[in-house]
């Protein structure tokens, strides 16, 4: 199942960093798979029998979610029932062996299991604990269930997404979870640097709230409201305060994205549209000027794109060095030569011998690139290696734990 042979394997950036992942669904697992892609040794704990629900979400291949092959790759998956004392005891033994514990349970759950930060620090004083939740570990909302869909609303993303005459929309993705996962991965690396590179030897807690990860993306909305009373609203395909940038319909029914918002690019755009008088008009000289006359500029662009096919419009704009492009579906991505040249896909072999394309992860490191060592494994695939090898359980002990439903 390895995507790369040992002969061609390069050292990865995070080799030697060991992470214990507890939790399920998306935010925590997304953080850890990014780190595993770049070489971290991730041990993932799942409940016996059912595992992470992501194993069976969305499109399945012979009972396993294709998504799982992405989010479980390079992880060593073990089964431990954290709800029972013997399972908690196994987790505590693992804490002795790892650098980081990553969890995304409801706040208070780990403490209920005697696996909170203070408990873990007594076992391993250097431990770093990354905690991902909907609302954070503190505050009046912290006990609430915290799904990304709600966090995207409270964090501000949904309010500005969609058209002004329609209800707020959502992207057809679990964006809040992925953003929280990115923040967790970044927090882990900062904490590791503080402990190991700065030489403090001190672990710490990383508290990631999904709604705050979304809130981090909200640009200048706070000072704009505080000083000017401006509430950014939904703009459909446009972007508040930046003109022109948007999505426009062509005569063949296709859409083209045009970004002409810098002063020099705006002039090139107007010349490409055979509107030299607009390029020279002092009313449109700078962005703030153009914002005041947005409708006039938008109508000119709409009139022009409606007279062009998508290919004609794209050719003209690219020749004029105006940023422009299509809106891609996944089918378009798979056919695009730039995606191919940049290595955004890899083909891996599944257990039944068939192959499937998976996306690779950014960013690209020239000296220590990431990569797939194995795809998302079967439930409990690494029980023997981790529980028997790393922790030293005998086969008889493992059999007894399995019979008791602990693993």
Summarize the structure.
The protein has helices spanning 27-37, 66-71, 85-95, 109-112, 117-123, 148-154, 175-197, 210-215, 221-228, 263-272, 276-280, 287-292, 294-305, 310-319, 330-335, 337-341, 383-390, 395-403, and strands at 18-22, 41-46, 60-61, 64-65, 75-79, 100-103, 128-133, 205-209, 245-249, 255-259, 324-325, 345-349, 355-359.
What descriptive keywords fit this protein?
407 residues; alpha/beta; Rossmann fold; formyl-coa transferase, domain 3; six-stranded parallel β-sheet; three-stranded antiparallel β-sheet; 18 helices; elongated
Q: Low-confidence stretches at least 5 residues in length (pLDDT < 50)?
A: 1-7
Shape: elongated
Question: Overall mean pLDDT score?
Answer: 96
Q: What's the helical proportion of residues?
A: 25-40%
Overall number of domains? 2
Q: What is the CATH-assigned architecture of the largest domain? A: 3-Layer(aba) Sandwich
Q: What topology, given as strand order, has the largest sheet?
A: 5-2-1-6-7-8
Count of individual helical segments: 18
CATH topology of the largest domain: Rossmann fold
Rg result:
25 Å
Q: Structural class from helices and strands?
A: alpha/beta
For the record, what CATH class of the largest domain applies? Answer: Alpha Beta
Question: CATH superfamily of the largest domain, called what?
Answer: Crotonobetainyl-coa:carnitine coa-transferase, domain 1
Number of strands: 13
- End-to-end span in angstroms? 25 Å
